[in-house]
Structure formats: C-alpha cells, structure tokens
Write a structure and sequence with these properties.
By secondary structure, the protein is mostly beta strands. Helices cover about 5% and strands about 45% of the residues.
C-alpha cells in the first residue's frame, strides 16, 4: 500500500531526486517597480538541482489585488500542475510572473497555498534576520 494518496510520478520513476523545502530565516519582498506585490517573514526556500532556489511565499502574504490569474499552466512530474498569475502593473514584463501549485503531489504539500515569482519578471529581495 502506498503511503501517498496522490504520489508524484517523478519520484516514483526517479527516487533519488532530491527537492528540499526549508523555512527562510528572514524576510522576502517582491516588487514590480515601486509596487509591493508580496512581503513575508514566513517564506520557504525550495531547492531543486539544477534550478536556482525559489522562494515560496504564503498566499496570505501576497497582494492578489495586484495580480490577475492567467490561463497558463505547466506540469512538473515532482510538484504537480502549476497555475500562473500576471502582475498587472508590470505590463508584458509581468506576464505569468507568479506560479503556484494549488494541488501539489503529496511529497510537495509544503508549498500548497504558496506562490513563487520569476526573478526575471519582478524584483525579489531577500534579507536574513
């Protein structure tokens, strides 16, 4: 019997794959120009080789009034299906700037209700406490 109800097929095929999610010991601020999109002291850092670390910010710390959900989605065999939001004030640059796994695979439930941002589309500033 599987210990997961919704296991990630990627981990089943590649059990040696390592993705870590750790609390970030500082604050993270996301800006588009002068507009603050998110600010959190409860962010998590997701590390997955070969990708750069990504900050996942709790939905409660994201100003969704500055975002617009898009129809774009992607699939990760380890994390699940990602939904996307655009930063409205950033125009074309802010298109699909934030993603989130709203129903992640069981192994990645720590990032449910958290959003991550592309550093190429918005400014992500992290400071350690």
């Amino acid at each position: 019997m599987d210990k997961f109800a919704n296991p990630a097929p990627g981990f089943q095929r590649n059990p040696d794959k390592v993705i870590t999610v750790e609390p970030y010991g500082g604050s993270v601020t996301v800006r588009a120009g002068d507009t603050v999109i998110a600010r959190s002291t409860r962010a998590k850092v997701l590390s997955e080789t070969p990708y750069p670390d990504a900050f996942y910010i709790p939905f409660d710390d994201i100003d969704f009034s500055k975002l617009a959900r898009t129809g774009h989605s992607t699939h990760c065999p380890y994390k699940g299906d990602a939904s996307y939001w655009s930063v409205q004030s950033a125009g074309e640059t802010g298109k699909n700037a934030m993603w989130a796994y709203e129903q992640p695979f069981d192994e990645m439930t720590e990032i449910r209700n958290h959003g991550a941002f592309y550093t190429s589309k918005v400014a992500v500033e992290a400071t350690l406490d």
